[in-house]
Amino acid sequence: MDFHLNSTVAAQATASYPELFALAGQNPNLSWLEKAWWTHYAYWDNDIIATGIITFLAHEILYFARCIPWIIADALPGLFHRYKIQDKKAPPSAKEQWSCVKYILAIHFIVELPMIVLFHPMMEFFGLKYAIPFPDLKTIAIQIAIFFFVEDTYHYWLHRAFHWGPLYRSIHRVHHQYAAPFGLTAEYASPWETMLLGLGTIGPPLVLGSFTGEVHLMTVLAWVALRQFQAIDAHSGYDFPWSLRRIFPLWGGSDWHDDHHRYFRGNYSSSFKHWDVLMGTVAGPRGKKMRKEE
């Protein structure tokens, strides 16, 4: 794998991370992150393992780190209660949150880890890049915007199908265990739902990469991180004055997805509102009001 450095790593097989990072520093055109990226792949000298480690660790660290603010909010109801959407229901107990964490860790290691290990061969098959340098920020932003809209469409129709009786009972019922969701429940789902929705996340980068050859793993990691943050925030159970949906009206946000859990049907999209509005599947009193006005 060519990392565009004027040195080889054949003689550096037993080198440490700091030694390899110093070697990467011989190229003055690389950013700190690009040097760290090169160091990681050079150290492991196995691209499948290196990609698996960086992808899985990023997923775990970012997921649970993003849940921390919502755990704190639930632990301080006196301070954050006024922002709670379903304010008549008590915050989840520590026991409930710990039970949720254990289930999610099981899903992450049993279901998602094998998918992550297989991602590198899939990435190479579909023509995604992972060598340095990284793409520019404009390219990353445009591609992530495309991924958000494509995934939202996939999620809407699959999620709507999950509410059909047989699919609900066999797949989706697990996720609806919590009528008042909290941050950790974003990935509280059955193995089949985890895999099928996961395809909606990794599918758009793979398809775009196969057509253009211009999708980088760094873009995929940034996209997955933002998609995680969106899912966690949507399940947080809190709506603040500074929430994104108040700035960007097309954005669904936590109040939108909370209605899905509260009223069970409608609001099937993941990130945006347009499919639910167009298809007449807006949930709860808001949807009834819209239909009455029509």
From TrEMBL:
GO CC terms of this entry: membrane
Any GO BP: lipid biosynthetic process
Highest taxon listed in the record's lineage: Eukaryota
Any one Gene Ontology molecular-function term assigned to this protein's record: oxidoreductase activity
Keyword Nucleus: no
Keyword list, A-Z: Membrane, Transmembrane, Transmembrane helix
Domain Fatty acid hydroxylase: 145-281
Subcellular location: Membrane
Subcellular location, principal: membrane
InterPro entries from the UniProt entry: Fatty_acid_hydroxylase, Sterol_Desaturase_Related
Protein name, per record: Fatty acid hydroxylase domain-containing protein
